[in-house]
Amino acid sequence: MNVEQNEAPSRVLIADDHIQNCELIEACLADEDYEIRMACDGQETLDVVADWKPHLILLDIMMPRLSGYEVCEKLKQDDTTKSIPILMITALNEMGDIEKAVVAGCDDFLSKPVNQLELRTRVKSLLRVSHLASERDRLLAYLEEVEASGQP
Predict the structure, then answer these.
(1) Residues 86 and 94 sit within 8 Å (Cβ to Cβ)
(2) Does residue 63 surpass a pLDDT of 60?
(3) Is the pLDDT of residue 151 over 80?
(4) What is the pLDDT of residues 75-133, one digit of tens each?
(5) CB of 101 within 8 A of CB of 89?
(6) For all residues of the chain together, what is the average pLDDT?
(7) Mean pLDDT across the stretch 16-39?
(8) From CA 111, how far away is CA 101, in angstroms rounded?
(9) What is the pTM assigned to this prediction?
(10) Count of CB atoms within 10 A of residue 83's CB?
(11) Distance of CA 145 to the CA centre of its chain
């Protein structure tokens, strides 16, 4: 979802160690105007985030090198990435798993198998929030700039 028609597509990172899951999620989002990249493990996810700056991360919990919990914690502790919404998608569905995801800082979660309508709806909603937060930050920076320059 884009705030304006001429705005660049939203960037969505899909992080899952099973390529079939990545491709399935990508197919669910194919009708939308998103730029999509994939990562196959926790460390690669962090690397892609640093280089590409996605607007939203769809993150599996059970991944090699770093779990989704660890990736989420690292991203939410970093001032440059903490505002990126994270939607955890997992086959785990015990209450303790959900609580651990929330404690790690995820913004929302879905259980596998993913319902396509629910996935698309949550992605749109989280992207809308992300874009509104970015716009707010731009406006606040502009106001600070105006105040610092002493202009009325």
Answers:
(1) no
(2) yes
(3) no
(4) 999 999 999 999 999 887 777 888 899 999 999 999 889 999 999 999 999 999 988 98
(5) no
(6) 91
(7) 96
(8) 12
(9) 0.88
(10) 15
(11) 29
Task: Give Cα 128 to chain centroid, integer Å.
Answer: 12
pLDDT of residue 152: 62
Distance CA 47, CA 93 (A): 28
Q: What is the CATH number of domain 10-149?
A: 3.40.50.2300
Domain boundaries, given as residue ranges, for the chain = 10-149
* Beta-bridge mates of residue 111: 90
For residues 71, 72, 73, 78, the Cα torsion angle rounded to the nearest 10 degrees is: 90
Helix (H) or strand (E) holding 59: strand 56-60
Pairing of strands 56-60, 10-15: parallel
Structure tokens at 97: 């798993």
In the numeric block, which tokens belong to residue 117?
Answer: 């309508």
Alpha-carbon gap, residue 38 to 104, rounded angstroms: 21
